[in-house]
Design goal:
The structure is a single chain. The chain has three helices and five strands; from the N terminus they run αββαββαβ. It is of the alpha+beta class. It has a five-stranded mixed β-sheet with strand order 3-4-2-1-5, covered by helices on one side. The longest helix has 15 residues. It is elongated, with a radius of gyration of 18 Å. The protein starts with 8 loop residues before the first helix and ends with a strand.
Length: about 110
């Protein structure tokens, strides 16, 4: 069970300090299997390359997304453990992730 709210300031302070220690650590790339697909649903017919299955912190995921967007010359976003790259860049994204040591499924 997770505590949602407390009126005790000492308990709140203790919970904040405990939560600060639980930052998500990045898993080794060779132990992660990334699924790369082209998605056209809910996007007005536009193609988006989606790479999902990352076990990274939000900062590391954003940094990886920025490098992939730069390689593809396209925009995109990193959210919820996924990286979205605008356009059909399946081969380029898969090749770059494999070069970085990730296992890739298409």
């Amino acid at each position: 069970m997770r505590l949602v709210w407390t009126s005790d300031p000492e308990a709140a302070k203790r919970l904040r300090q405990e939560g600060a220690l639980d930052a998500q650590a990045d898993a080794d790339p060779s132990k992660q299997t990334i699924k790369v697909v082209i998605d056209r649903k809910r996007r007005a017919g536009k193609s988006v390359t989606v790479a999902a299955g990352f076990q990274l912190s939000a900062a590391s995921l954003a940094e990886l997304a920025a490098s992939l967007k730069k390689k593809c010359g396209a925009g995109g976003a990193a959210k919820d453990g996924e990286i979205e790259i605008q356009g059909d860049h399946l081969a380029r994204v898969a090749a770059e992730l494999e070069r970085l040591g990730y296992r890739v499924r298409k």
